[in-house]
Each structure stands twice: as structure tokens, then as C-alpha cells.
Design a protein that fits this description.
This protein is an alpha+beta fold and 253 residues long. The chain is built from six helices and twelve strands. The longest helix has 28 residues. Keywords: Signal.
Length: 253
């Protein structure tokens, strides 16, 4: 009898170990990009205006309000400096200062059948940071204003987009793979699903969780009965995105 109990305990320990390893790998896949406040003056930036005009040049200056970009000064090759308001920009790709090549995340990000390939692919694969124009109420309190906001989940932002909060408080310092997140995980982000963007914090996650995730039967089935954790926000969004894209592919067949 004791042998059977010991064997069962060993089996359960093995299952838990594999589950923990799977979750750890999943967390690495879903890790948000670090929030950057600096930019490279040596590498070109790529701007697309709302009217479709594309501009390539070197950033001369970035003006911010409340930590978010509201104006750029850029020098096009062979041309004079141009000042562009965030309200005129659709998206921006620029390299962080001291850009280092980060380890590539899971191969599924390169699966064109699931994630699709966009113009962003070539920039993101070189370590560039992605910004998009958003009308946002800062901290859910301020008058909605247009800013260029950094997308921190660019590789799986098809359904839910996550934007950095430059003034977010941090949890304890951690590392994900070879990427060290100085200061730890942010305690707040701006999260957009559909047309609604909210300031999502560790303390108000429960308030917004149902709207963000619980319209997916697959998601509910996977996490039924579990206590939701802020540290797994990226994993929840990645899972939800995969479920949504799989459903879309199924409907298209």
C-alpha cells in the first residue's frame, strides 16, 4: 500500500513539474516588451501618417506629455528637420537607445498561417519598438487625447492590444529568459479590446476581466475555477488571442 502511495506521489510530482515548466515557457512566450523612454539617434525611424504617407529618417527629438509621445522631430535623409504631431501619425517604429538583439521568442510567432505577416514584421524582427496612435483617457480620468503609445505585445496584438504606462509602478525585479526586466513587472498598462481602451491595473483586474476574456468558451473552459493572477496577464491575452484566431480560421473553412 505504501509503495502505491509513494508511486502516486511521485507521479503527481512529475505532472506538477511538467505543468510548471510548460507555464514557465508560456510566460516567456507571452512576455511583454520592456517600456522604453529612450531612442536611437543612429538608426532610422519609420513613420506612417494617417493619410498613408511614409517617412523614413532619424529622430531629432521626442516630446512627451504625461509620459506619452505627442510630437516628433525627425530629419529625413537629405532634407531638413520636420516636426510631426502625434495626431497626424498612424504608427511609428523606432529603435531604443543602445539596441541589443533580444532572444527570439517561440517559433509560433513566425507561423504565418496563424499570426499573419504585416509590414511590422521586418521592423519588429530587428528589435524596433512599435507605437500606434490612440485616443486615450489617462488613468481613466483625463479628457481623451491622442498620443503615440508603445505596444508591448506587438507579436500577438491582433485581438487585444497592450500599451505601456510610462508611470507604472513596478513589482519585484525579475528576469525572463535572457531578458532582464529592470524594476520588475509593471502594475498597470493601457489595454484595448475593440474600440475601448482602459487603464488596467493590478487592483482593478477583476473589474475588467469578464469583458476582456470571458466571452470565449475555450478560455472559460481552460481557466474555470482558477484564481486569476496579474503576473499571468500576458499568458491570458496570448491564450485568448489564439482561441479567437483558431475560431476565425475554423469559420473560414
Amino acid at each position: 500500500m505504501k509503495v502505491k502511495v509513494v508511486s502516486l506521489l511521485l507521479f503527481m510530482t512529475g505532472v506538477m513539474t511538467f505543468a510548471q515548466e510548460d507555464l514557465k515557457e508560456r510566460e516567456q512566450q507571452a512576455a511583454f516588451d520592456p517600456a522604453y523612454t529612450s531612442y536611437s539617434r543612429k538608426k532610422p525611424a519609420y513613420v506612417t501618417l494617417k493619410d498613408g504617407t511614409k517617412i523614413e529618417g532619424h529622430i531629432k527629438d521626442v516630446d512627451r506629455k504625461k509620459g506619452q509621445i505627442h510630437r516628433l522631430k525627425i530629419i529625413e535623409d537629405g532634407k531638413k528637420k520636420v516636426e510631426i504631431q502625434a495626431t497626424d501619425i498612424a504608427d511609428l517604429y523606432m529603435a531604443p537607445s543602445g539596441l541589443e538583439q533580444l532572444d527570439k521568442q517561440a517559433n509560433f510567432f513566425n507561423d504565418a498561417t496563424k499570426w499573419g505577416k504585416t509590414d511590422a514584421t521586418k521592423h519588429l524582427s530587428k528589435g524596433y519598438t512599435m507605437y500606434t496612435n490612440q485616443m486615450v483617457s489617462l488613468k481613466n480620468k483625463k479628457k481623451p487625447t491622442e498620443y503615440l503609445m508603445q505596444v508591448v505585445n506587438p507579436k500577438y496584438s491582433q485581438v487585444i492590444q497592450v500599451y505601456s504606462d510610462p508611470f507604472a509602478k513596478q513589482t519585484a525585479s525579475i528576469g525572463v529568459g535572457s531578458l532582464k526586466l529592470a524594476g520588475g513587472i509593471a502594475k498597470s498598462y493601457y489595454v484595448k479590446k475593440g474600440e475601448e481602451i482602459v487603464w488596467l491595473t493590478k487592483s482593478n483586474l477583476d473589474e475588467h476581466f469578464d469583458r476582456l476574456f470571458m466571452d470565449s468558451e475555450d478560455f472559460k473552459s481552460k481557466y474555470e475555477g482558477e484564481k486569476f493572477k496579474w503576473s499571468l496577464l500576458g499568458v491570458y491575452i496570448l491564450d485568448y488571442t489564439e482561441f479567437a484566431l483558431d475560431a476565425q480560421m475554423g469559420e473560414a473553412k
